[in-house]
Amino acid sequence: MSERKLAVQVQPKDNVASIFAEVSAGDTVEVMARDGSLDAVAVHEDIPYGHKVALADIPGGETVWKYGESIGIATKDIKRGDYVHVHNLDSARARGDWKE
Amino acid sequence: MEHTFWGYERPDGKVGSRNYVAIVPSVVCANEVAQAIGNQVMNCRPLLHHQGCCQLPPDLDRVTDTLASLICHPNAGAALIVSLGCEGTDVDRLLEAAGQSGKPCDIVRIQEIGGMANAIADGIKKAQRLSMAISGMQRRETDLSRFVMGIKCGGSDATSGLASNCAIGYVADRIVDAGGTVMFGEVTEFIGAEHILARRARTPEVGEKILKIVSDMETRAKSLGCDMRKGQPTPGNIKGGLSTIEEKSLGAIMKSGSRTIEGVLDYAEMSAGRKGLWIKETPGREIEILTGMAAGGAQCITFSTGRGAPQGFPILPVIKICGNPHTYERMVNDMDINAGRVILGEASIEAVGEELFQKLLKTLSGEQCKGETIYYSQSMDIYCTGPVI
């Protein structure tokens, strides 16, 4: 594997990117957008291969976007560079545990 | 004919990519006899399942319909039904389907012939005759309008929706454009992406049907009063970076390509000459969806994975395409195509898709895929939605 730590932003609207490297807190990842342009994001936490980093600040309760579509709701305030996964991102679908 | 493959012409006009004797238990209780026959006679494939008794009528109908479709599957050159005698499955209807298919068929009746030992002995003799009867069949060249492709992704991770599923989507478009049939399913994994699929529907009615099957699936999931997470996405998906069902679904639908969705086929339904891209109403779990695809008449499945799913199916080649380059290296003996090269920036989706397309044509003509050579060929079941009673 190359030394570069690359992440993919699938659509311009996305506020998260999937990282295809093992990343440690303090690393900088290169985020490749659909048009091939690169953005550097400083990562605040260790992030496993294939998992997501926030590209923007996402307040709790706001939508998390990937593929240009909603992949759920932030359950707490997320900062650019934070690790985004089940600890701060909840599905809004098939929630039998939610009262209507 | 731009692209062709070599298959077995069946009396009903279908074309098989394999030439097996399907051993078909009518009910779970007949599995052991079917297995014993399959162990003894060359080229037999038992279609073991766990249904066919103490179920509500809609499920029993589905079991009968599914088994009838499997008996008619073109990869079965012949079929041997193994009946217990008191099952809820409609054995007469299975015999009728066998007759209509025009292929050599026979039946073993366990209670009537006097138990396990007699049934196994009777079945071995009958299966041997069937196996001999089809053993000399030759492949003939045919075009992709006679091909039905089933699609599946399993053991997905974050690479699946960006690499391996996209390569399958490329192939799906190629098959549709060549006049063939493509089926994709896993309705649970439409949740959060169904609006995109509905926009691709041939008619407003098809769009509404897509939204309805997703809503029905979501309602079933919610009825137990808990969060679906861990069931879907699975713990493996979550470990692989997929946080929610929406994220999993948006990646999963990449494997359907970009063409118009013609309609929705029932779980047990044969594709029966319908062309273009279709949804097969199936859940996400391998053993049930692969059966649904086989019932639809798929002669081959293209199967995408990221974490490494080894599943096969008794009468179908299942080609594995892996999106995760590390998994591909670790499980190279199970994985046919390396889409991890897309993630590494070493190959385009089109290049990997073309590689998969060429492997598919060769597999249809008889080349084995890795799951076949390692003989992952005994797991299947039939998707039922009601209780066992």
What is the SS-derived class of chain A? mainly beta
**Distinct helical segment count of chain B:** 15
Question: In CATH terms, what is the fold-level topology of the largest domain in chain B?
Answer: Rossmann fold
Strand content of chain B: 15-25%
- Class by alpha and beta content of chain B: alpha/beta
Care to count the β-strands of chain B?
Answer: 14
How large is the radius of gyration of chain B? 20 Å
Placed side by side, the strands forming the largest sheet of chain B appear as: 10-11-9-8-12-13-14
Poorly predicted tracts of residues of chain B:
none
CATH architecture of chain A: Roll
Regarding CATH, which class of chain A?
Mainly Beta
How much is the average pLDDT of chain A? 94
CATH architecture of the largest domain in chain B: 3-Layer(aba) Sandwich
Walk me through the structure.
The complex is a heterodimer of chains A (100) and B (389). By secondary structure, chain A is mainly beta. In chain A, a hairpin with a 7-residue loop joins strand 1 and strand 2. Chain A has strands at residues 6-8, 16-19, 28-32, 38-42, 52-54, 63-66, 69-74, 83-84, 89-90. Chain A has no helices and 9 strands. Chain A has a single domain, classed as Archaeosine Trna-guanine Transglycosylase, Chain: A, domain 4. Chain A has a 6-stranded mixed sheet with strand order 4-3-1-2-5-8, with no helix packed on it. Chain B has 2 domains: 20-134, 3-Layer(aba) Sandwich (Rossmann fold); 144-373, Rossmann fold. Chain B is 39% helix and 17% strand. In chain B, the strands form 3 sheets. A 7-stranded parallel sheet of chain B has the order 10-11-9-8-12-13-14, sandwiched between helices. In chain B, strands 4-3-5-6 form a 4-stranded parallel sheet, with helices on both faces. The longest helix of chain B is centred in the first third of the chain and has 19 residues, at 116-134. At the A-B interface, strand 7 and strand 9 of A face helix 8 and helix 10 of B.
